[in-house]
Design a protein that fits this description.
The structure is a homotrimer. Chain A is mainly beta. Chain A is built from no helices and 9 strands. The radius of gyration of chain A is 15 Å and the shape is globular. Chains A, B, C: It is found in: Secreted, Extracellular space, Apoplast.
């Protein structure tokens, strides 16, 4: 796998400020959290599991599938309070290797949303500085959310 | 693959009582059905297709992907009336191997919902006795459902 | 891989007329577009990346995963105006090999919906002449869509 600049590879959604508006009973909730995605280093949270050349295919190749169990924190610093995990997968789904399709759950394990989940699906064209994903559903506190983005 | 206790391995969502509330035009529908998931035995309905060590990686390893075409029945007994199939996939998405991310359709093939589908996405932390998944959408009878859980 | 009739294999959703009704603030939007899916030929837009026998498993086998970056056009002709890409994946999820589970984004890159996306999930039993999929969410113009089908 190609590791740019260092063996510490905060690939794709590291410390991405995720803003979330839940239109819940005509009430709007704004929520910020940070997902840290590491494909290498001491705290690997994502691994390649399939691709055109098998499980070891580069994440930058069209078709590669990555399994994730990323820490979700309250602040942009990985050492800030851990409030959940982002569990699921993404697949490199752009012919030039510059886009991902994300499918995962945010599982809140601490803080006021503890026990609730958000279901995420969306295109992550990581050459763009700002991206917007869809929250397709949720459980617990987020059971009735819809029309939300982050 | 590790097969606990027997060669008959009703893995993860076997006979899980699935309760479903569809808030359909302000009307609530409660629906129960049972999904039977067999990774071995005479009636295999799920196979591993990718993972860190290739298609044969254990379902209990982080990253393993399983394709499913599970029977859906009216009652908890596999021999009760077959009313549909659960088709799609899940991926082991917890670093310790104890959690799945589910993505599949419930395709009703009999009963009053015949011809309709439900789209499911959610975290299945199978160490927990009760789990809640999201119904993200549906077709036919379930075209307008939202805010539903099961 | 089995290629029926020719080396040009417009497999599964080629030129499928996709109709879309967005119930957006009680207003209905009807939208038609065409997704062209090529697993072989000069303009390959989809590749197999995992399956029971590895990345080269036939798309017609239960369990095979296909990554897609398909052109989306305004008309049924591949040479009509390109308005977006369908990026994501599908998995063969029927034991007899005759059904797919689709998970992808429609990313509009031109036309009046440029910059918006639709998130699709659904069963594609391709032996049926007409199929209906769920739009589970969207961004931009489609941020508030729900209860939609295509």
């Amino acid at each position: 796998m190609y590791i740019p600049n260092s063996s510490f590879f905060p690939l794709i959604i590291v410390a991405l400020p995720l803003l979330y508006w839940a239109f819940n009973f005509r009430k709007q909730t704004k929520l910020a959290f940070y997902v840290h995605d590491y494909l290498s280093g001491h705290d690997i949270s994502a691994i390649t599991v399939a691709g055109k050349d098998g499980p070891q295919t580069s994440v930058l190749s069209f078709g590669t599938i990555i399994a994730v169990d990323d820490p979700v924190t309250e602040g942009p610093d990985l050492n800030s309070k851990l409030i959940g995990r982002a569990q699921g997968m993404y697949i490199n789904s752009q012919l030039d290797g510059k886009g991902l399709h994300l499918m995962f759950s945010i599982i809140f394990t601490d803080g006021i949303y503890k026990g609730s989940t958000l279901e995420i699906q969306g295109a992550d064209l990581f050459a763009m500085k700002e991206r917007e994903f869809s929250i397709v559903s949720g459980t617990g506190y987020f059971r009735f959310v819809r029309g939300e983005q982050f």
